[in-house]
Amino acid sequence: MEHKLDLSRRTFLQKAGFSGVILALGCHWPASAAKAGKIVQVDSTLQATELMAWISIDGAGKVTIFNHRSEMGQGTWQAIPQIIAEELEVSMDDVQIRFAPANPQKYGPQPREGSFSIRGWYQELLRIGASAREMLIDAAANHWNVDKSQCYAANGHVIHRDTGRKLGYGLLVQDAAALTPPPQVALKERKDYKIIGKPLQRNDILSKVNGSAVFGLDKQLPGMLYAVVERNPRFRGKVKSFDDKATKSVKGVSHVLKVQRAVFGLMYEGVAVVADSLWSAMKGRTLLKVEWDDAGFEHLGSEQLFIRMNEDLEKPLPSDAFETAFKNSSAAIDAHYEMPYQSHSCMEPLNCIAHVKDDSIEIWGPIQEANWIQADLSERFKIPAANVRVNMTFLGGGFGRKAFPDYPLEAALISKEIKAPVQVVWTREDDMSLGPFRPGAVYKCRGGVDNNNKIFSFQIISASQSIGPGQDKDATAQLVTTNAGEMGGLLGDYYKSIPHYSFGGMPTKSPIPTMWWRAPGANVDTFACESFIDELAHLAAQDPLEFRKAHFSTPRYQALITKLASVSNWQSRNKNDGWGMAITECFGSIVAQAVKVSRVNGGKVRIDKVYAVMDCGWYVNPDIIRAQVEGSIVMALGASINHATHFEDGKAVEKNFHTYPLPRIGEIPQMEVHIMENDEKPGGVGEPGLPAFAPALCNAIFDLTGKRIRKLPFSLDEV
Q1: Residue 692: CB partners within 8 Å, gap ≥ 6?
Q2: Cβ neighbours around 288 below 10 Å, total
Q3: What is the pLDDT of residue 302?
Q4: Do 347 and 380 contact (CB within 8 A), yes or no?
Q5: Which of 554, 575, 635, 657 is deepest in the core (most CB within 10 A)?
Q6: Which CATH architecture has domain 313-341+437-718?
Q7: 607 vs 597: CA distance, rounded Å
């Protein structure tokens, strides 16, 4: 199905030859109320902006379902409509999908982080589809003057059981529009699903293959100008002065102006070059001369940053109880782990279109968090949120970076100044070197086992930048207690089975901006946790998988790790190969991975295969889950052996893919993904597949070579 996302409903109805009314079913926020909004009769001549609804059904029975979440490859474009279509009793082949603009009153929170789209919304989406179905059945029963119980819905029609008579949804629109939504609806049992749980082909595949899908960089407006911004490579530096004489000599350049963007409360400065084409703006930027004021903050390099983190490891308050337990362990070890800074490096660099008028703002682009951006612009420009329209396009990757409001604000400020719509485009170098970044981290791990070969003491102290602009303004950073807290990705049963554990750490002070990155928290903590648990397994001379399993009492954990052992044939693994595993929990899902490595002709280490088992509970589309786990493994592979962001004199070093190499297709190992079947509540899918890979890989390399990898990234050629 081809999707032309800029097609208005007026145009759609006109081109299709439809007239009369459409049926629109909305949802009143908050979702906890679980109430369907009333179906209303709407004149077909109204613009799409006036039809803020989840479902619309036109007079010919064509169903349009609105996706209220952003789509950056994770599959919401398919999964959310698939949920609604199941209860609505329509085929996905007969459904159109459209993005819904930011509207928290209608759609509730619309962020796309925390893997929340399905786990946070599935019940509400099911009820919306079921409410529409029941109202259409009511309308048909009234038309035939029969009892509702004698009717059922199937494939976009309501059917009378006894006579076989049927009416298409489109013919029931006017009658259904007069009905009140039912206060409660019965939802299907899982065994009765026809669409949910099935590997249906994604509706966005064809448009992304043939080029008709609209990403942020594809969107154009009449009279739109283009802008690029010269920003301070040291992040916080101010514009002292700039010389734009040569820049303005470039044909098409119309404006050169100072601009700001907000990063966690701090205003970062730059100079924007605006032109009638992107090429002219970029050429003008190369001729721009800017003098920066970089006083008042540190210009740190990577070596200084990690020295500071390691010093911070020694600052947390000691835990006397843990020290006693550590000394009383039958055998004990300690280890130090290190994780690097990382860029998000989405395939589509940041970009945003803004059109600011006196009393309204409209945004178009790869927006991951529409509500936040709407609220931020409303507050900063003193314009009611209802007059701030945020339109989502497809995203060419996001990983948390495109949830941030800094780049839409920058575009809006430029638009306001030049009094025209403008598209601000970040170059690849801008996108990779200006942050915010995933923070680096260091870990001090200590632990021991008891006489029963189980973990007796377990401590992890970390030092890292907190998410934000950096804590360098605090005179003294707050100490973090070490006898409480949790570690990202660590399974819940460890908190019950380990008698003495201690977690905590220190926020390291630095002016470098840092933020969330796919599977935040777990993407760094899990490497230390699962690697060190593996070290404790070897200390106890135990099989690493069985060692972990002995600490689990929850049947769900036991089933998952048993499944991993089965699909990987763990107990029969070749002694000449290296095998490692890790199991993590985050965003409501549990993922176990086993990695097999070997040496090529006795030399270079090769990753042969990755086995992954995902337990995300109730799920929608298994193909989407497998794709997300595979994509997570590839991203984790790159962060493990390919790339990192370094700093010199306060500036990011890596600026493009020649120095920040992403995995090539020849580096990708075979992957086998399995999905657990159970009745658990749905968990996330887009993020939980990432954290387990790095420790599983490094544990496998230890099994093969006897060398313990404790610092990422590393080179397979040097193992």
Answers
A1: 489, 526, 530, 582, 583, 584, 591, 592, 593, 612
A2: 21
A3: 98
A4: no
A5: 635
A6: 2-Layer Sandwich (3.30)
A7: 4
The pLDDT value recorded for residue 95 is 86
Query: Model-level pTM?
Result: 0.91
Would you say 318 and 482 are in contact if contact means Cβ atoms under 8 Å apart? yes
Which tokens in the block code for residue 562?
């048993």
- Cβ contacts of 575 within 8 Å, gap of 6 or more: none
CB atoms within 10 A of CB 15: 9
The pairing of strands 225-231 and 422-425 is parallel
CATH number at 216-297+350-425: 3.30.365.10
Strand partners, 479: none
CB atoms within 10 A of CB 119: 20
The answer to whether residues 581 and 603 touch, using CB atoms and an 8 Å cutoff, is no
CA dihedral (253, 422, 654, 300) positive or negative: positive
Report yes or no: 110 and 102 within 8 Å, Cβ to Cβ: yes
| Positions in the chain whose pLDDT score sits under 70 | 1-53, 105-114, 116, 469-485
Burial class (CB in 10 A: 0-12, 13-18, 19+), 411: buried
Residue 472: the pLDDT is 56
The structure tokens listed for 443 are: 């870990």
Question: What's the CATH class of domain 9-210?
Answer: alpha beta
What is the per-residue pLDDT for 99? Answer: 81
CA 579, CA 567: separation in Å to the nearest integer?
Answer: 14
DSSP run (H or E) holding 63: strand 63-67
State how far the Cα of 338 lies from the Cα of 694, in Å rounded to an integer.
Answer: 12
Cα angle: 96, vertex 24, 156; to 5 degrees: 55
Phi and psi (nearest 5°) for 365? 160, -175
**Cis peptide, bond prior to residue 520, ω within 30 of zero:** no
Contact 91, 198 (CB under 8 A): no
% helix, strand, coil for the chain, step of 5:
35, 25, 40
Task: Return the domain boundaries, the chain.
Answer: 9-210, 216-297+350-425, 313-341+437-718
Whether omega before 436 lies within 30 degrees of 0, making that bond cis, reads: yes
Residue with tokens 């949830």: 403
Q: How far apart are the C-alpha atoms of 680 and 682, rounded to whole Å?
A: 6
CB 537 within 8 A of CB 547: yes
